[in-house]
Amino acid sequence: MQYLLMIYQNEVEYAKNDAATSQKMLAEYQAFTQSIVQSGNFKAGDRLQPTMTATTVRVREGKTLTTDGPFAETREQLGGYYLVEAKDLNEAIAIAARIPSARIGSIEVRPIWVYEK
Amino acid sequence: MTPSEIDKIFRDEAGRALATLIRLVGDFDLAEDALQDAFAVALERWAACEIPDNPRAWLVNVARHKAIDRIRRRAVFRGKQQELVHELELNAQAADEPPATLDDDMLRLIFTCCHPAFAPEVQVALTLRTVCGLSTAQVARAFLVSEEAMAQRLVRAKQKIRLAGIPYEVPKREALVSRLDGVLAVIYLVFTEGYVATEGTDLMLPDLAIEAIRLGRLLDRLMPDRAGIKGLLALMLLHDARRAGRETSAGDIVLLEEQDRSLWDRGQIDEGLRLVDDALRVPGRPQPYAVQAAIAALHARAPSFEETDWPQIAGLYGVLLRINPSPVIELNHAAAVSMVDGPARALDLVDAITARGGLSGYELLPAVRADLLRRLGRTEEARDAYRAATEATQLAPLRRLYARRVREMDI
């Protein structure tokens, strides 16, 4: 079986960490990722940019509606995900709007964190 | 050259210079910082001697070099940034860019600031700060928030541009119409806040209205023959033309029916009327702003309140209701109907809107009801409605207006 492990935490508090604490956490994540890659459990995983970079997409009456910020309603629950490559936010929004559930629910579009090499 | 003259050039050129710089350096913050550096150099040099023939090109050029310096100074100077510096240096040798490219830069900046991934108030703040060149403090004042809060909001918005990949471009053909509607909505938001402030002591914030008109003119020049743009510009010019007549020297509201029409700016009205005609002549479906401007034109043309063409105004609101239905338009329609068929008929319409819950929370609804009840002689109900209207607004001059109406009923 495959499982999606969703990581929730307070990003405001997390951002207050000093460099040493962040560095330590990052090292722990690297070690953890390494371990599940080696054990063969790893399928995919990414860090997300903070919620202030999020855009929520809904399609109602054939029109694409976008709102600034993350998905914030408790009436709907996470039901699936797509990881897509898009040239910019416009393309990502256009793809999100084609997801069938965009017509009844919401699609949160959040950029993946890219670590500089 | 005096500092205030230099300051005026900065204000006039900041938006356009920034628009080009962002394209060249590919980063909002870097472009803004480099432009500030260039302003500092200009302040020193221009005060001492003559200003260059083309201040904007001069500013862009100096800022481009400042951007190169800034990238080089960064702690980590990586391959990608080396490429950028190389490219910037190559461009610096190039001849002046054609005006069409510079116009496109300005449109790119406008469409990026008005991107629908930003909340409307963020779009407005970004536009005022970057396109209009207002200082963060000025934008903060327009929003009645602290400068730090506004600075934070702008920083986050620019981070979102970078991190979420909001493209620096004019939307493609298929998206252009809906995105342009978004830009017009931002300009109209700036204008309406200047026309009747949401809260505070002053009825109007004329600087914002003037800024919105400037944006409208700019957009009309960059994207000619669009009925929506011409309509919005006409609407703003016609409304703003009445500014001198709309308040007393003490800052009290003078209602349309009481205004001294000789105080209206005739030159601006003539320009607005010409634009309405142009907007209505553009082929295609009637645009909501053009129809609203046509209504404003009927007010502007009327020699007095009584001689206003109310049946045609009510008819035009009917058109608006068909092409762009909204409870606010319904309320305006009802107010126009009250001048044609009397306040009783209008009150039925208003109560119908209320019954549907269409305008709950819209602060002018109780004010319109109060006015209709007052004209019907239903004094007690009018008093209650004025009380509700007073509670609904945060704007001191509106509160004084309602208090005056209540006093007048007592006489």
Features:
heterodimer, A: 117 residues, alpha+beta, three-stranded antiparallel beta sheet, B: 411 residues, mainly alpha, 1% strand, elongated
Architecture blueprint of SSEs:
The complex is a heterodimer of chains A (117) and B (411).
Chain A: H1 11-15, H2 19-38, E1 55-60, E2 63-68, H3 89-98, E3 107-109
Antiparallel strand pairs in A: 1-2, 1-3
Chain B: H1 3-25, H2 28-48, H3 55-73, H4 79-93, H5 99-113, H6 120-131, H7 136-143, H8 147-164, H9 173-195, E1 199-200, H10 206-222, H11 227-240, H12 266-281, H13 288-301, H14 310-323, H15 327-340, H16 343-355, H17 365-375, H18 379-392, E2 394-395, H19 396-410
Parallel strand pairs in B: 1-2
Helix pairs in contact in B: 1-2, 1-3, 1-5, 2-3, 3-4, 5-6, 6-8, 6-9, 7-8, 9-10, 9-11, 10-11, 11-12, 11-13, 12-13, 13-14, 14-15, 15-16, 16-17, 17-18, 18-19
Topology of chain B as a string of helices (H) and strands (E): HHHHHHHHHEHHHHHHHHHEH
Tally of DSSP helical segments of chain A? 3
Tally of extended strands of chain B?
A: 2
Q: Please tell me how large the radius of gyration of chain A is.
A: 16 Å
- Walk across the major sheet of chain A and give the strand order: 2-1-3
In oligomeric terms, what are we looking at? heterodimer
Portion of residues in helices of chain B? Answer: over 70%
Which strand order spans the largest sheet of chain B, edge to edge or round the barrel?
1-2
Mean pLDDT of chain B: 90
Number of strands of chain A: 3
> What form of chain B results from the Cα inertia axes?
elongated
Structure annotation, total helices of chain B: 19
Distance between the termini of chain A: 34 Å
Q: What fraction strand of chain A?
A: 5-15%
In N-to-C order, the SSE pattern of chain A is HHEEHE
Q: Strand count, sense and closure of the main sheet of chain A?
A: 3 strands, antiparallel
Fraction of residues in helix of chain A: 25-40%
Question: Hey, roughly how much beta strand do the residues of chain B contain?
Answer: under 5%
Judged by helices, strands and strand pairing, the structural class of chain A is alpha+beta
Distance between the termini of chain B: 60 Å
